């Protein structure tokens, strides 16, 4: 379901189509919790997971509602709005993951909240070069305005200091949320290239990430 919702925005040309798909999943979740799942493979598996792990309906609804708001295709007004989006999508997914694993711990929930927010911010940064190729910029407007940077500056791929300062401020907010998980690898790499978000090295996927995660888990350094 997560992948379906994530792909809706990039796979539609009209907002109405996206709203219809979001409504399908909203209705599907309602039916799942009424023990009457629709005849759709993903929905059927989701129903089984809900029954098996007693997953909280609220987290699914938050993900759908926030993804629906995001169909507006506008930049975030401020960093707090970006964090709210991340909390209601990335963190909500982590809460569901914890429930699936049978983890009921306030400290784990607290960590999931911070990790989700940081992940949302990092995802926004990582996606910026791609969005710019489509003439779109979603970075928080308040930080862009603070440094006198326009959307057009990002679309043109400018790399002046004020553009890098925008990335620095946003990356710093992610760093506040976490310092000792795999996402910090991206923040470290972006510092190495002086916050030039268009640097080619930042577009490469880490093939060693699974091993990196395993080692950190084994050492308990999250």
Commentary on this structure:
- There is one protein chain.
- With 222 residues, this protein is an all-alpha fold.
- Helices cover 69% and strands 0% of the residues.
- The chain has helices spanning 2-11, 15-33, 41-53, 57-69, 79-100, 106-133, 141-146, 151-155, 161-177, 183-192, 209-219.
- Helix 2 (15-33) runs antiparallel to helix 4, helix 4 packs antiparallel against helix 5 and helix 5 (79-100) crosses helix 6 (106-133).
Fraction of residues in helices?
55-70%
Proportion of residues in extended strands: under 5%
The SS-based structural class is mainly alpha
Q: Ends: how far apart? A: 27 Å
Element-by-element helix/strand order: HHHHHHHHHHH
Counted by DSSP, the helix tally is 11
Integer average pLDDT: 84
Please give the number of β-strands.
Answer: 0
Sheet of most strands: none
- Spans with pLDDT under 50 lasting ≥5 residues? 207-215
Shape: globular
Radius of gyration: 19 Å
Set down the secondary structure blueprint:
Layout: H1 2-11, H2 15-33, H3 41-53, H4 57-69, H5 79-100, H6 106-133, H7 141-146, H8 151-155, H9 161-177, H10 183-192, H11 209-219
Helix pairs in contact: 2-3, 2-4, 4-5, 5-6, 6-9, 9-10
Q: Which terms would index this structure?
A:
222 residues; mainly alpha; 69% helix; globular
């Amino acid at each position: 379901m997560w992948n379906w919702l994530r792909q809706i925005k990039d796979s539609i040309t009209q907002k109405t189509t996206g709203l219809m798909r979001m409504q399908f999943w909203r209705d599907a979740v309602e039916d799942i919790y009424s023990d009457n799942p629709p005849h759709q493979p993903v929905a059927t598996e989701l129903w089984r997971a809900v029954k098996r792990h007693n997953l909280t309906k609220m987290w699914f609804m938050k993900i759908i509602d926030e993804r629906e708001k995001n169909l507006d295709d506008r930049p975030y007004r401020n960093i707090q709005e970006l964090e709210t989006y991340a909390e209601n999508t990335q963190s909500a997914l982590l809460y569901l993951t914890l429930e699936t694993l049978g983890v009921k711990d306030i400290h784990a929930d607290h960590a999931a909240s911070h990790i989700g927010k940081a992940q949302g911010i990092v995802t926004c940064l990582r996606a910026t070069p791609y969005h710019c190729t489509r003439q779109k910029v979603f970075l928080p407007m308040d930080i862009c305005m603070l440094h006198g940077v326009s959307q057009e500056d990002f679309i043109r791929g400018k790399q002046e200091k004020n553009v890098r300062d925008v990335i620095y401020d946003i990356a710093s907010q992610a760093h506040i949320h976490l310092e000792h998980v795999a996402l910090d690898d991206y923040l470290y790499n972006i510092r190495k290239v002086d916050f030039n978000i268009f640097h080619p090295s930042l577009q490469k996927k880490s093939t060693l990430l699974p091993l990196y995660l395993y080692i950190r888990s084994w050492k308990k350094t999250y």
